[in-house]
Amino acid sequence: MAKSTFPQHKSVKREKLSIQHVLFATVLMVVLFLFFQLQFIPYVVSSFVVPLFKPNPEKMEKVGFIQFDGLVWASTTKDKAENIMKQGRIEVRKELIDKEYIFDFSFQKRNEKQNGYTKSSSEWYVKSDVLGENPIYLEPWIGFWILALVLAVVVTIFFTMFLPVSLGFMAVLFDRQINETQTKIRLQTGFPDEVVDILTMPDIKLAEKDRMDVERVFRNVWDRTITGELADPKQGLRFEDVFDDNIDVAIFRKESLFNRIKEYYSDFLIKEIEDTMDGLLWRHNHMLVMKGLRLYMAHHFTEKYSNNVTGLAYGGAAILIVAVGIRGLKFIPAQRPSFIMLSIFLEFSMLSLLAVTLIYTEEEERMDKMLKKMEDANRSQLEELQKQSFDMHQLSNVLVGQSADIIKNRVERAISEYMTSDDNIKKVVAEEISEKIMIGLRDSFSQSHSGKEHFRRG
Hints:
This protein has 458 residues and is mainly alpha-helical. It contains 17 helices and five strands. Among the domains are: 20-145, no CATH class; 170-360, no CATH class.
């Protein structure tokens, strides 16, 4: 069998997901979760709630509304407001507020005697005439923890994309996906590793590659992607007709070679090649995170976890429906809507994940194009089988007909050479003489033994 003209592919060191990747990602996610839960979310919620439910401009002319120490706002008289502003942000106290508007998003415990209102350290307190007579108690460790966790996971994912492969959790997954996608391309096309490397190589790297190697790979791909549509003038073109020394290899690959691959194989294969090119750009520069993310999401996550994400979205919707139903039955009081907020944020997270998954899901190829490519593939296989059948027929004719005399002559020549060889003759004579001697010795021994037995009996 003839050896392949392509050199052996050099083995690439593949970084495996190990304990340092998991440990670093876990520690980072925990730190971010606590930051979002204890600092970021209280600030964002207060920035959203206070402007909506604070005293309106007309009422602000009559009362004072100031911020105390921490994320605490309360209404007071005009005189007290001026004195408090001169002192700076001080701790909220009962004698300083009028209890009409109170917004407390701190994790401090309050009591009626000292502060003028009561709440635990795990609650937020909101009171405004717009929300009714009774205050609203928000429990962040029930209603907002899922949001803090999602934000921590998202930031951890993006941050570990920038890190080196030796430390970044997502960097390892991206780098591994590049190698796996290249393997899938090789299995789908049957091309050797060098051809796959050239097809997936970024344009900048391709321009630096030896032109002779690139031309040899392009010729191989061109010859392999000939379809049965002889009526199409493009199919009748030889590689030499379209490729010369002046052509740009990157443009030729994109406009000519990729179109032939798409027609011969599928659109999905071209997407794999293009996304692998982007992944290799990310491998060279980790700042290009969206290119690596595209490869991982489109060719791993959506293929493996799309059904799981859809199921989680439906599960979140079911929880939200139950929560709203219980609220409608008055089992969840209006003053404590934390469980409702938990259900809303949970469903929001699941729907967001589903949306991202659908964005990166590859569209299915049209059925008519798939059938046409299957027809071309079957026709090519039939032609190949016909060629093999013709070759086997020719071989059988040679073996049965013309080769008979050749085999006969070779056998006679071998016998003649053996018989005329002095060494072979001496060897045969020596074997015959030794065999005769051994037979004579055995006969003599047998006769001697018989004579002794006869003498004893006599």
